[in-house]
């Protein structure tokens, strides 16, 4: 069994077809992550209507750029997440972004939103799905102030030293289909031991002209096997066990 731990199912125009392709690739569980104030309710709705989808709720740092009213909506967001705490398996996608978002005036608000989401994850005892692009140092420093044991860093491409730090702290790293064409991601995978690897599609992001889909994580698994010199069966089992550790509600909810 394969599990896609980071997907944006609410963004697919033909979701049923996407899920059918996932099933053919033996992908049986998909975590769909909320990103915006407007996407939270839709994320829950999709999960309620599709047995293989499990919702995570959170606010992406790009909301500071896309939604000028996000700070005023924070209390309502927190209330909605708390109301749905029994249904969600994680807080995410949350984090900070200093790479794609160039306006430094937005960074204090990014940090405020991130701290708020971390406090919520700690309060609800939920794992987090993290976006760290360009803000790795600050994020890793912030995380030391919280007691959140189950942390996944999605699509990591930052400094190698934080991979070691993350592994030492027990963090997980989910690998995307970008591994098929990105030397950086191949190097990241080479630096992560098997006990800290997860799989994700981040769909429907575009990978060199191909729309990301959960079914593609089967190829991600094969690429990792080549790098790690391990059989598909052994790696699939290891990643399955890793996923059960960090996202236990996929088996209990």
Task: List its traits.
253 residues, alpha/beta, TIM Barrel
What does this structure look like?
The chain has a single domain (2-252), classed as Metal-dependent hydrolases (TIM Barrel, Alpha-Beta Barrel), CATH 3.20.20.140. The model has no long low-confidence stretch (mean pLDDT 97). It is globular. The protein is an alpha/beta fold. Strand 9 and strand 10 (210-211) form a beta hairpin. It has helices at 15-24, 39-49, 63-66, 74-83, 107-124, 136-143, 160-169, 183-191, 217-228, 232-246, 249-252, and strands spanning 2-7, 27-33, 53-57, 90-95, 128-131, 151-154, 172-175, 197-199, 206-207, 210-211.
- Low-pLDDT parts are none
Radius of gyration, CA atoms, in whole angstroms: 17 Å
Taken from the alpha-carbon principal axes, the silhouette is globular
CATH architecture: Alpha-Beta Barrel
Determine the CATH superfamily.
Metal-dependent hydrolases
Query: Which strand order does the major sheet show?
Result: 1-2-3-4-5-6-7-8
Stated plainly, the CATH topology is called: TIM Barrel
The proportion of residues forming helix, as a percent range, comes to 40-55%
Mean pLDDT across all residues, rounded? 97
- Total discrete domains: 1
Given helix and strand content, the structural type is alpha/beta
What is the helix tally? 11
TL;DR?
It is built from eleven helices and ten strands. The chain is of the alpha/beta class.
